[in-house]
Amino acid sequence: MLRLMKFLKPYLPMILLAIVLLFIQANADLALPDYLSRIVNNGIQQSGVENAVPHAIRKSEMDKLIFFMSESEAERVLSGYSLVEPGSSEAEQYLDDYPVLASTALYVRKDLEQGEIAALNPIMGKAFAAVSAIEQMVNDPSQAQAMAQELGIDLSRIPAGTDPFELLAMMPEDQRSALSANLSDRFDSLGENMLNQMAVRAVKVEYQALGVDTGKLQTNYILRTGAAMLLISLLGGAATIAVGYFASRTAAGAARDIRLAAFEKVESFSSAEFDQFSTASLVTRSTNDITQIQMVIFMMIRMVFYAPIIGIGGVIRAIDKSASMWWIIAVAVITLLSLIILVFIVSLPKFKIMQTLIDRLNLVTSENLSGMMVIRAFNKQADEEQRFDRANRDLANTSLFVARVMVTMMPFIMLLMNLLSVTILWVGAHEVAAANIQVGDMIAFMQYAMQIVFAFLMMSMMFILLPRAAVSGGRIADVIETEISIKDPDVPRPFNEPFVPEIEFRDVSFRYPDALDDVLHNISFTARPGETTAFIGSTGCGKSTLINLIPRFYDATHGIVCVNRADVRDVRQQELRDKIGYVPQKGVLFSGTIESNLRYADEDVSETTLRQAADIAQASEFIFDNPEGFEAEIAQGGTNASGGQKQCLAIARALVKEPPIFIFDDSFSALDFKTDAALRRALREKTGGSSVLIVTQRVATVKNADQIIVLDEGRIVGKGSHEELMSDCETYQEIARSQLSSEELI
Predict the structure, then answer these.
(1) Which residues share a beta bridge with 295?
(2) What percent of the chain has pLDDT over 70?
(3) What does the alpha-carbon distance between residue 703 and residue 726 come to, in Å, rounded to a whole number?
(4) What gap in Å lies between CA 554 and CA 563, rounded to an integer?
(5) Are 97 and 212 in contact (CB under 8 A)?
(6) Whether the Cβ atoms of residue 451 and residue 32 lie closer than 8 Å to each other
């Protein structure tokens, strides 16, 4: 995969934007459990009262609270409030909210920052709790004695009916401080949550005393928090959609670029490179392998960046809700990672095998489709079915093994999730009973735990998918990074003008890559303009290999191949091949129409030229026997045309190009003798000024050639005209006498 990372560079801005959106999405997802916790804790349990810093409080109650604050604390609290007296101009704007203001002075909270409210909350929380404790002691005689002893108060010295806060006002400063310290220590031992709940209950009682509709307060809080959750959900949803869009664009674009780069690379392959990769393998690499990479790029953008944010953020927020239950998440994550590692170890080797098996299945399928007629002719359908079945079963069994391993994970993961939920409920219930956390915090902790586990699950799944993508990426990189053996020169040399289609081989030898011996040995000859040079010899003697050196499908191992007196290695391949009309042994046609196949050589050629080329190639008869003519459809690979028709159309395509050099590599083998003779006569008239090179095994085809070169085991064993070779070349004589009668040899 790392070898293909350069293809992601054009999409870097899109990736960065997706990462920013993932932060927004992750923070939105992490915020929702916290808001749910607020609804349960503050909205339901605390009736909409958020903290111990009320929006308004009676002056008489504030005076009681100040008894239990230090001077600096009291000064800080009072600085956050404004005193509003009944009948004042300021009282009118608060009278509707606080009806008691008509007869009682109030302290109204200023517009404070959240940080200042958070700082005042513990100060006023302890004070509210202290006041509540004193009032409970007075109102509940059964507990008064025990509480008085705990607080160090002698109830026998307090006259009946005396306001305890009046006594507190008369107490010396040191005794009052000692009492405050005693209460503070007691409340510290209760824990922050219990203290907050005690203070909130007192604030609710104060709101009721102010005439505030606490039911409406609760409803407004729940609706306000719910609306915030809805907005956050919509924001997270929009971010999710945008991330999906950018991830899809990036993955599809990168896959397109990789596929194009692979295709362009394959197009530049010489025959030597094609020997390294089978057609079936190249097809698999261009389709299945790139699809794997596309999927992983998409998943990486969606998960690899998102999962760590959720995982880390979830841990921080979960511990903030309940630090005492962190071990539950740790156990769940360790268990999950152990399961993923086990699956990874088991399935990784299978992922590496799967791509090779896909290659094998594609190869068998391709061979069966292309060789269907041969298979039927030899009644090998059953054998080929077994061969396909073996390849298919091998892939299916491997895929099923991996699928079973992956499917087995889900029950374990669901069991883990359920056990995690039950454990959190069990432990959390005890924490709630002990007033260490609230119910909403427990619910939020459970949701954060699920998010953390899913985050680790997503990251672990990526580690399972990445090895297969890495295998696919390596296979594609092997194609893209293949060193091309035939390259254009750094400083190409143009052909001299006017172009003279003279071809010269100077002591040329050739050896296939990784072969031990040469297949061509010291080949030297010259093919002149206006002449036909024919190559003949036994099967495998090197005829096709020799002419493949001219268009540089291979490069000579030793010696020089010259065209127009220039070494073919010194000119650009495109310029060289523009001068050549090449017709291979096997007539290759492309899906489309007859016209589109002929125009493959020159898109702008006139219809007159098309007809002339078809006439010379002896293709007009079967073309115009069809009512559609040039518009007749050609199936993929030309399967709806006979071998002879494909050769005729391939020859016509070369003629449309009107090049100065024609190469016919055994291109007449599928033609009958009559068509062959007529085609050669027409070619001689058409190609009068061109160099024509013909590879054939038919003596009748080369009999009238200007120069015949006889090859045997990669060496020239005869060179000259038909008459000359019949007199002094034994190899040619054997070939000629095996094909022609005595009368035809003359």
Answers:
(1) none
(2) 90
(3) 11
(4) 15
(5) yes
(6) no
Q: What is the mean pLDDT of residues 134-145?
A: 59
State the amino acid at position 20 in one-letter form.
Answer: V
Q: Which strand ranges, in their side-by-side order, compose the sheet holding 580-583? A: 580-583, 661-665, 691-695, 532-537, 707-712, 715-720
For residue 133, what are the domain limits? 52-212
Report which DSSP code applies to 641: S
- Asked whether 707 and 525 are in contact (CB, 8 A), the reply is yes
**Helix, strand or coil, per DSSP, at residue 487:** coil
**Residue 302 vs residues 241, 410, 466, 650: alpha-carbon distances, Å:** 11, 21, 14, 50
Which of 610, 608, 588 is CA-nearest to residue 598? 610
* CA proximity to 328, closest of 343, 318, 320: 318
**CATH classification of the domain holding 509:** 3.40.50.300
**179, 212, 245 — which closes off a domain?**
212
Chain centroid to CA 488:
35
Indicate the DSSP class of residue 557: S
Indicate whether 304 belongs to any domain. Answer: no
Q: Which of 212, 227, 255 is the last residue of a domain?
A: 212
**Which amino acid is residue 129, in one-letter code?**
A
Cite the beta strand spans of 477-541 per DSSP E. Answer: 503-510, 520-527, 532-537
Nearest to 475 by CA among 277, 647, 200: 277
For residue 523, the cross-strand partners are 508
Rounded-to-integer distance, Cα 590 and Cα 637, Å: 6
pLDDT grade for 228, boundaries at 50, 70 and 90: very high
| Helices and strands: H and E segment counts in the chain | 29, 15
**Omega before residue 498 within 30° of 0, cis:** yes
Residue 384 included in any domain: no
Facing residues of 566 across strands? 563
Q: Check if the beta carbon of residue 21 is closer than 8 Å to that of residue 235.
A: no
Task: Return the ∠ at Cα 573 (arms to 569 and 579), rounded to 5°.
Answer: 105
The rounded distance, in Å, linking the Cα atoms of 9 and 13 is 9
As a whole number of angstroms, the distance between CA 389 and CA 383 comes to: 10
pLDDT in tens, 403-420: 787 777 778 878 888 888
Q: Is the dihedral of CA 224, 229, 230, 234 positive or negative?
A: positive
Would 393 be classed as within a structural domain? no
The pair phi, psi for residue 152, each rounded to 5°, is: 80, 30
Contact between residue 715 and residue 708 where contact means Cβ atoms under 8 Å apart: no
Locus of tokens 């209950």:
201
pLDDT tens string 503-543: 999 999 999 887 788 899 999 999 999 888 999 988 888 88
Please check whether residue 49 is in contact with residue 207, taking contact to mean a CB–CB distance below 8 angstroms: yes
Among 689, 691, 725, 693, which residue's Cα sits nearest to residue 710?
725
How many angstroms from the chain centroid is the CA of residue 390?
Answer: 32
DSSP H or E segment with residue 649:
helix 643-657
Grade residue 20 by pLDDT with cuts at 50, 70 and 90.
Answer: very high
Structural domain contains residue 510: yes
Least trusted range by pLDDT, from 28-42, 314-328, 525-539:
314-328
The number of distinct structural domains making up the chain is 2
- Interacting residues of 342 by C-beta distance below 8 A, sequence separation 6+: none
